Amino acid sequence: MLHTLPSTLALSLAGGAVIGLAGSLLLVLVGRVAGISGIVGGVLRPRAGDVGWRLWFVAGLILGGLALRSVDASLLGADVTRSPITLLIAGLLVGVGTRLGSGCTSGHGVCGISRFSVRSIVATCVFLAVGMLTASLVSVWTRP
Amino acid sequence: MSTYNSAVVGLGAGLAGFVFALGLGIAGMTNPDNVLAFLDLTGAWKPGLALVMVGAIGVHAVGWRLARSLRNPVLGGRFVLPTRTGIDGALLAGAAIFGVGWGLAGYCPGPAIVDVASGSSSTLIFVAAMLVGGALTDRLVAPLFRRTSRPTSSDDPISTKGVLE
């Protein structure tokens, strides 16, 4: 059953709700916004007294990944079909873009939109549109 | 902040990260193929990811209202929340560059870090490149903004930008 998890729309909604719960936990308990790119960025650009909670959060993410893997390894993207050079370029672009644009899917797309930030709504529309355009073009070009 | 408080805050943050990863997994976002099936409009389109965002935004909107009613975070310290408003070139260019990378690999930062647990070399290459790209941007681009932009609050605008979103 777990193999069909992602194809079930109800589980998409439920998974989203759990993501929203996690963001709420960080906000209410720790007083921080759950933007992953920003949390990780603050580790790479450390300020005194502002690193510990970030490392704990990232450790929680990876521990959660290990838990998912122990339930069903196919939940994780271990068999990504992209070439290493594509992944390298994509990683660089995601790193540059999320720092320049002050956020990613979590910070802008979830946390920002849910507090009606105009910046976040605009950013989310832009990266969704460009992401769809890119994925669609790649799909057309690489189709046999 | 005392050592005890730091540890409690750390556990709170760790719990949030753990639950976040489970949510991404349940939603199917930790597998980039599912993300690409949503972003790619030319094939058998899967609308699931839109529902992930609906669920996440709905619940987080409640969390946000709850947080607004509190004077301080439950585990101590103070709220550190985004202060910047207004649309600028960095926001638009950054979002567009991120969109290209997202559409190429199907990975955004959260799922990529969760997938480190897979130990797959593909994921590790992506995450390493993402960290390098982010660090270079902070070093090379952030100083330009520090010179040309005025703070919108008492906080350093660059660290505000980096920390909060």
Question: How would you sum up this structure, described in words?
Answer:
The complex is a heterodimer of chains A (144) and B (165). Chain A is mainly alpha-helical. Chain A is built from six helices and no strands. Chain A is globular. In chain A, 60% of the residues are buried. Chain B is mainly alpha-helical and 165 residues long. Chain B folds into two domains: 66 residues; 76 residues, no CATH class. Chain B has eight helices and no strands. The longest helix of chain B has 25 residues. The chains are: A mainly alpha (144), B mainly alpha (165).
Q: What is the topological layout?
A:
The complex is a heterodimer of chains A (144) and B (165).
Chain A: H1 9-30, H2 36-44, H3 52-71, H4 84-100, H5 105-114, H6 118-141
Helix pairs in contact in A: 2-3, 5-6
Chain B: H1 3-27, H2 32-39, H3 48-68, H4 89-105, H5 109-114, H6 121-140, H7 142-148, H8 157-164
Write the element-wise H/E pattern of chain A from the N-terminal end onward: HHHHHH
Q: Which percent range fits the helix content of chain B?
A: 55-70%
Largest sheet of chain A: none
Structural class of the helices, strands and pairings of chain A? mainly alpha
Shape estimate of chain B: globular
- Spatial gap, N to C terminus of chain A: 31 Å
How many structural domains can be distinguished in the coordinates of chain B? 2
Uncertain regions of chain A: pLDDT < 50 for 5+ in a row? Answer: none
Alpha carbon gyration radius of chain B: 18 Å
Give the helix level of chain A as a range of percent. over 70%
Helix count of chain A equals 6
Q: Main sheet of chain B?
A: none
Summarize the structure.
The complex is a heterodimer of chains A (144) and B (165). Chain A is mostly helical and 144 residues long. Helix content of chain A is 71%, strand content 0%.
What labels describe this entry?
heterodimer, A: mainly alpha, 6 helices, 0% strand, B: 165 residues, mainly alpha, 2 domains
